[in-house]
Design a protein that fits this description.
The structure holds two protein chains of two kinds. Chain A is mainly alpha-helical. Chain A is built from ten helices and seven strands. Chain B is an all-alpha fold. In chain B, helix 2 packs parallel to helix 4. The chains are: A mainly alpha, B mainly alpha. Chains A and B meet through helix 2 and helix 7 of A and helix 3 and helix 4 of B.
Chain lengths: 286, 103
């Protein structure tokens, strides 16, 4: 009888040990945004020791001295200037009901771009600036704007301009859904897709500074700080939504609908890991 | 003699059944196209369709509309292969993405 009891005790002890180990295994897998952001920043600053931290927000122009000079010249007569004027006009013009965008945002929408995307705890989802602008329109009886066209780019350009120099300050509240959204965004960033089998990281982590055809690839650190951007390749302005969907189609993947949960989460992740870097939007890119 | 008649009848029946089962080029296309569409739909449920699959599906449809069913079947099979590759990619990337993560 005794050996049986000993055997059962040993089995129970082993079981307890096994289950005792589970929480630490789970803890090891738990997303740690603070550690991620630190590792992200370290990776790029080690890879490009000659680039000042705040200069990463200038994308390809931070990677190459000649390009940097070109960019400085371009900034004398920035190609996004028309969008800025249009955005300011749109932003200040009241809706048909007399209200305006300013009524939908903290601080009347001025100097708040660095806080977007936010996590809406009521909805349990990430809300980007583009989404917040369209929700504002709809709440005031206006039709939503296309997420990939000039009007949305103009509005976000103006709002970004009022935040220039302010550091990205993305918050992840103490809510498991926020952490899940962050983790989903991270997974999307590193997941290979499309017939070319590229992830976002393939270009913007593994190959920044290198050329893909005629383009110099931007580093992922600070990549959203300059949004929206005027792209010479597009001969016009582009929103974050346009950038994400175009990236997908360039690697021969069918893009998701703009502002799909995946893109919202991706923007949340990418913005968070660039916390502390200044907003430089609207930007100009080749 | 009786056995031979029976054999002949059986052979005739088999020939008849085979020709009844033999698919026309159009039905071959329909089968191949349906398989490709189903695979592409599965890729869609994984949020991982490829643009080239849609291109091959459209080419298959265009060839079938022009009556070129050999080409239509070939394009459908190409589309199915591409869709299956995108499904494989989405499935394997469920864990593989972690290998690229900055740590």
């Amino acid at each position: 009888m005794r050996p049986v009891i000993q055997f059962v005790s040993a089995a129970l002890a082993l079981t307890a040990l096994a289950f005792g180990g589970v929480p630490s295994a789970v803890a090891a897998d738990k997303p740690d945004p603070v550690a991620d952001a630190k590792a992200f920043r370290n990776f790029f600053t080690k890879k490009f020791p000659q680039v000042r931290l705040e200069d990463f927000v200038n994308g390809p122009y931070s990677m190459n001295e000649d390009m940097h000079r070109q960019w400085e010249e371009k900034e004398q007569f920035p190609p996004y200037e028309f969008a800025l004027d249009m955005g300011k006009e749109m932003f200040t013009k009241p809706f048909k009901n007399g209200k305006s965008y300013a009524d939908c945002f903290p601080n009347q929408g001025i100097g708040v771009r660095q806080n977007y995307p936010t996590f809406d705890e009521k909805e349990g989802k990430v809300v980007t600036l583009e989404l917040a602008l369209n929700r504002c329109r709809e709440a005031n009886g206006e039709a939503p704007l296309s997420y990939v066209k000039d009007e949305m780019a103009a509005l976000t350009a103006y709002m970004a301009f009022t935040s220039r120099g302010k550091p990205f300050d993305i918050k992840i509240p103490d809510d498991p859904r926020a952490l899940e959204a962050y983790q989903n965004g991270k997974r999307y960033f590193y997941t290979r897709r499309g017939q070319l089998n590229f992830s976002c990281a393939t270009c913007h982590v593994q190959e920044p500074g290198e050329r893909i055809r005629a383009e110099v690839l931007a580093p992922a650190l600070g990549i959203l700080n300059a949004m929206p951007i005027y792209r010479s390749e597009w001969s016009g302005m582009g929103t974050t939504s346009r950038r994400f969907t175009t990236c997908n189609s360039q690697i021969r993947g069918v893009p998701l609908e703009p502002q799909a949960d995946e893109y919202r989460d991706l923007e949340y992740y990418l913005s968070y890991v660039s916390n502390g870097l200044p907003i430089s939007g609207p930007g100009a890119r080749p | 003699m009786r056995i031979s008649a029976l054999s002949l009848a059986t052979a005739l029946l088999m020939v008849g059944a085979t020709s009844a089962l033999a698919a026309s080029p159009e039905s071959d296309f329909k089968t191949a196209y349906a398989a490709a569409e189903a695979a592409n739909k599965e890729a869609g449920s994984l949020r991982n369709q490829w643009t080239v699959t849609a291109v091959a599906l459209a080419a298959a449809k265009k060839a079938a509309d022009a009556g070129d069913f050999d080409q239509a079947v070939a394009q459908s099979k190409e589309a199915e292969a591409l869709a299956r590759a995108s499904i494989y990619q989405a499935t394997s990337e469920k864990d593989a993405w972690k290998a690229l993560e900055i740590k």
